[in-house]
Amino acid sequence: MKLKLKSLENVKNILTLFFLINSFIPLIEKGIVNSKLETMKNIYIILIFLSTFIYFYRIKVKWNYNIFIFILNIYIIISSFWSSNFNNSFGKSILLLFISFYAFYLRKRYSSIEIISLFNKAIIITVILSYFFIFLVPEIGIFQDYRYGGTWRGVFNHRNSLGRIMSIGFNSLVLEYLATKEKKIIMFSLLCLLLVIGSKSTTSLIILILGIILIFKEKIKPIKNQVKYFYTYLVISVLLFSTTNIFSYLIKNFTNRDVTLTGRTYLWDYGINLFKENIVKGYGYLGLWYENSIYWIRMVKKVGFVAAHIHNGLLEILLQLGLIGFILYFFAVSFGIRKNNRNIKNYNMIFILFLLTLTFNLSESMTFGYNSIFWLIALIAIV
After folding, report:
1. In 308-346, where does DSSP find H-type helix?
2. Among positive and negative, which fits the CA dihedral 265, 271, 277, 280?
3. How many angstroms separate the Cα of 145 from the Cα of each of 223, 321, 362?
């Protein structure tokens, strides 16, 4: 089913998805775009979410919302009260709640194919802008520092951010092509592939290939018992951050990569020790990783460098929300997958993208992003 781009509602949603991709941060950093744009973006997204409520009011939609997501969101808001940075945590936890309702709106308003089509249009905008800056404004589009010099980052703040988005975008475009047979989609999927290669993000390339395998499997024999894939992710994730010595040994003997995965194993050891100090309720949503907090200072002293997060989505949940938050997350995802698989046509199209975001979460922390396209994809799969 094709979307009519001239539809105001569709354009509004494409722009919202584009903002959630966060693909203009380097423009703000370099002063090319006024720094107030970040604030304007948040205001715009809030207005979009308010319009979502108006939509629900007008059509009297039946609210078969995943109750565990609602409880999880409420707990996240409450966790702000024991966060060491209340104002930041509380404000962004409210934005997180808005994103949950926005995901529910998209799920109710559009089919799976239509949602993917909207997302792909936002991806295409990002692709075009990335190539523009890579070739015409290389001081922004190409990394200039000593570590990643020469690698592409497009309109992102890091090469890995470009790689992740384009990896997901490639597979999303392939899914749309298989559903619609529109040949122009092939061109943009190849452009996504080239951006992943140009970013030199090995993880993104591996996950892009994993997506192709999942799509191929879906075409041959549709994926069933989806929740077992989520359980597999949980097991692998726990094994990664709880057996860092074994993991480092395997990397050292079977690959040519840094045995610490660029410091991730140090972070995981530090994170486990932090978790042991506050097992039940955690440190509050976004209560750890901000400059000059006691935990930030301890991290720098312990691991020797600054990190924006713990580089593991599951460990991040345990740190921010404790066992209570993890249990709520577990039930939200498990219940949502089962419910949507029964009730939504072409559910596996969204589920495959959700699996790819989970895979990225093995070495990144993209769960509960208040302005993240990755968390929105997860919510659409489980809401």
Report:
1. 313-343
2. negative
3. 43, 36, 26
Among candidate residues 193, 196, 232, the one with its CA nearest the CA of residue 337: 232
Token pair recorded at residue 20: 């959630």
- Cα gap 305→261, rounded to integer Å: 14
Query: Cα separations (Å) of 345 from 21, 92, 106?
Result: 26, 33, 14
Q: How is residue 221 written in tokens?
A: 């024999």
Encoding tokens for residue 344? 């939504």
pTM of the complete model? 0.89
Could you list the pLDDT tens digit for every one of the 383 residues in the chain? 455 544 888 888 898 899 888 766 555 555 555 556 666 666 766 767 777 777 766 666 666 778 999 999 999 999 999 998 899 899 999 989 988 988 988 998 899 999 999 999 999 999 999 999 999 989 888 987 766 678 999 988 889 999 999 999 999 999 999 999 999 999 999 999 999 999 999 999 999 999 999 999 999 999 988 999 999 999 998 888 776 555 555 454 555 554 345 557 788 888 898 999 999 999 999 988 776 678 777 777 777 767 777 889 999 999 999 999 999 999 999 999 998 887 778 899 999 999 999 999 998 888 898 888 999 999 999 98
CB 17 within 8 A of CB 126: no
